[in-house]
């Protein structure tokens, strides 16, 4: 099969054997995949991963009782036997593999395998090009699992990339008063069309808010976000980057700021919100490529200001 593989510091289309099918798992045919900022960071050295890239996918099940079903896939493959799994925290299983990120080949390929418990059906009303946003949208919904959001909470979202735009919409739907800060007015215009207040970074007055979500995708975003968080406020961190900058943590102590790391999230509310139109993603698609054009897709996705780039392995 063909796959977009990262190895020896380079991402290239390669011939690979069909994936080995572990007991109880199923084989899937990826239909549409999304390029995530994490994929780009992996190519820059994040996580030390080598193998088939990609973790955002809509796929067709090829075997088992769900054969022919269109699904999306949670990315953490837990062992199901450890203490973390017993407590319902499979996303933090110390023995897990992570699709296209840690010890598990990803979705930029003609075939993939996954445990059936990780699969979520895609409703007929939800087109694949929108359903491919389920995984990053679930990460946005994770914030609602971690932070109590009272109606009218003043929330600041730093970053107008793919994830930041999803987070701003989720917080708005949940009842927060959201201000989205970014560098690209064309991105912010999409949020304004959804009733969300926006401001360009250079025009922002830096007024601190009680809830700040850092989704800049940059190594410098954390320091900016700290300064934007009101004393005794909550700072949610979403960016994962390859760089390791030195950061002065004293403001967290001085201002008694609560820091929440936030990663993957629940798929069910993400599927529902896309299916009923509460979250808008169609204007975020910036390009579509075949698997054979995979390296061009990564190059496009890495250009400054690019939103979601799709790969069609079919």
What would you note in describing this structure?
- This protein is an alpha/beta fold and 314 residues long.
- It has 10 helices and 18 strands.
- The protein folds into 2 domains: 2-133 and 281-312, Quinone Oxidoreductase, Chain A, domain 1 (Alpha-Beta Complex); 137-261, Rossmann fold.
- 25% of the residues lie in helices and 28% in strands.
- The chain is globular.
**Topology-level CATH name of the largest domain:** Quinone Oxidoreductase, Chain A, domain 1
Instruction: Give me the Rg, rounded.
Output: 19 Å
Largest sheet, if any? Answer: 7 strands, mixed
Per CATH, the class of the largest domain reads Alpha Beta
End-to-end CA span: 11 Å
* Backbone shape: globular
Tell me what the CATH architecture of the largest domain is: Alpha-Beta Complex
* Uncertain residue ranges: none
Structural class: alpha/beta
Strand content: 25-35%
Mean pLDDT: 95
Order of secondary-structure elements: EEEHEEEEHEEEHHEHEHEEHEHEHEHE
Contiguous helical run count: 10
Counting structural domains, the number is: 2
Total strand segments: 18
The CATH homologous superfamily of the largest domain corresponds to: Medium-chain alcohol dehydrogenases, catalytic domain
| Share in helix | 10-25%
């Amino acid at each position: 099969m063909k796959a977009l593989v990262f190895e020896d510091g380079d991402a290239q289309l390669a011939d690979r054997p069909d994936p080995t099918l572990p007991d109880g798992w199923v084989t899937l045919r990826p239909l549409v995949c999304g390029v995530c900022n994490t994929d780009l960071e992996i190519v820059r050295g994040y996580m030390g991963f080598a193998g088939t890239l990609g973790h955002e996918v809509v796929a067709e099940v090829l075997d088992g009782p769900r054969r022919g079903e269109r699904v999306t896939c949670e990315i953490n493959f837990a062992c199901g036997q450890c203490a973390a799994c017993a407590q319902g925290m499979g996303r933090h299983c110390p023995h897990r593999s992570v699709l296209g990120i840690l010890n598990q080949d990803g979705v930029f390929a003609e075939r993939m395998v996954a445990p059936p418990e990780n699969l979520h059906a895609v409703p007929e009303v939800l087109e694949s090009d929108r359903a491919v946003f389920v995984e990053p949208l679930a990460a946005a919904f994770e914030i609602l699992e971690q932070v109590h959001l009272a109606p009218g909470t003043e929330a600041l979202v730093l970053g107008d990339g793919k994830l930041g735009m999803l987070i701003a919409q989720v917080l708005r739907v949940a009842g927060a008063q959201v201000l989205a800060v970014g560098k690209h007015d064309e991105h912010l215009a999409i949020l304004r069309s959804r009733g969300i207040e926006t401001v360009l970074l250079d025009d922002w007055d830096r007024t601190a808010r009680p809830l700040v979500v850092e989704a800049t995708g940059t190594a410098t975003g954390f320091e900016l976000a700290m300064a934007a968080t009101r004393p005794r406020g909550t700072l949610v961190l979403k960016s994962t980057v390859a760089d390791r900058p030195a950061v002065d943590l004293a403001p967290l102590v001085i201002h008694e700021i609560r820091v929440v790391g936030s990663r993957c999230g629940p798929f069910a509310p993400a599927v529902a919100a896309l299916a009923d139109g509460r979250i808008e993603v169609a204007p975020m698609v910036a390009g579509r490529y075949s698997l054979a054009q995979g390296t061009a897709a990564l190059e496009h996705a890495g250009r400054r200001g690019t939103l979601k780039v799709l790969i069609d392995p079919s």
